[in-house]
Amino acid sequence: MKSQNKKINFVLVPIAVCFSLGISAASFTNIPFFICYPLSAILLIVCLFLRDDEAFSINLLGLAFFIGAAHLSSYQTLPKNHIADANNRWIFWQDGILARGLIIDEPQIKEGRAKFILYLSEIKVGGGEQKATVRGKILVTVFDGEVLPKISYGDEVILEGKFFRPHNFGKKSNFDYRRYLTRRGIYGALNVRKGAPFKITAHNRGNFIKQLAIKFKNKIESGFYANMPESYAAVLSTMLLGDRSSLPKGILEVFVRTGTAHILAISGMNIAITAFILLVFLKVMRIPRKPRYILTILLLVFYNFITGAQPSVSRAVIMGSVLLVGLLLEREVNIYNSLALAALILLAQNPLQIQEIGFQLSFVSVISIVYLSPKIERFLRLNNFILKSFSVSLAAWLGTFLFIIYYFKIISPVTILANLVIVPLVTVLTVAGFILMLGIFILPAFVHVFGLTAGASVYLLIKSAELFSLIPGAYFYLK
Fold this sequence. Notes:
Elements (H helix, E strand, L loop, with lengths): L1 H7 L3 H18 L3 H17 L3 H24 L20 E7 L4 E3 L2 E13 L4 E3 L3 E7 L13 E9 L12 H6 L3 E7 L5 E5 L5 H20 L2 H12 L7 H9 L10 H17 L4 H18 L4 H19 L5 H15 L7 H24 L4 H24 L1 E2 L3 H28 L4 H23 L6 E2 L2
Parallel strand pairs: 5-7
Antiparallel strand pairs: 1-3, 1-6, 2-3, 3-4, 3-5, 6-7, 6-8, 9-10
């Protein structure tokens, strides 16, 4: 019985680590699926018959490693009718391509053009003389201003344009754009010129929940821009809705220089504040305790859809949901296990996320805060809120320091000091922003007042970051 209990209570952390290592190893070595799959099956059978705890644990970790490798290999194996298959290469660099498909994300409309992801179902070349049933996601750019207001998520469309493989921005750029799109399953691009054939054949063919979430997001953003200056609304949309499309580059640069750009991404703190506001609101509405927790979890999941299910948001929502389930069942929750569970779920959905900067920074920062912050507090004997905030900022900085240098080639000595001021302001801004969001739907008569409060919070946040960036030696770039 003792052996069985140990097996049941085996923590998720080493399993998640080995699963991630298996994905990483497969990505660097290209381990084929026909090797990983049999090894996984053998180790699974061995685990089922092992009685020794130590041997069981070792084999289980080996199983997690090879499942991770097999999962990546399987994920990257494309069907024969996929757009990236070798037999379909004749389609690339063809002009006059007539494509049929479904718009599977919210079109980004900016500067007289729209970009969206199209899931292909059919391609015709040369006026329909050559026809191919293909599958896969492509990035479409439409340059026709008359078409833009009509398109939306869930539309089935037929359009004509030039088809090509996505290309990088030049030798001087370290950003591999083609690889970035491949990690999102996008293997081709189509440009639609002004006046080219474009027809919407059906509406509302997408996921109902995602479609509803986009409608909520658009209404919230409209409320932001109607009640605040444009640049402030863009900052609030970035921080609360995950939409960076309108964020001014100058404002982004200020936060990058002070090492506080992480506050522009939706993080665990935002989700914690969101959950707290929802719990208080539902309690005021006299919702009983258990239904209150269940409703909060469902609303957090819906909020994840609103923000586009970015890795940092999904990770925080999963962890928050696990915590709420623990409270619901009156069980203690291990934060490391909930973090490991979040990693397993996200990597099961898309193992290529492990190569994403946002994914890596999201998990590394949380692990650093959870592990290092209490040790820093004990070492420095910190016993008040301000000093504890210092320990959190220092822990996050220590954990992400090398990642920031590697990816962004910048060192910001002012980071820890800036976070002491900016992080509390972010808390105030997040609360003010969510009050504004609730006001848009519930109290429209007072929404302008809520907008003034949120706008003032954004102003203080930006000005604080600007002041820290002006300190001599606040930052310097590496060549």
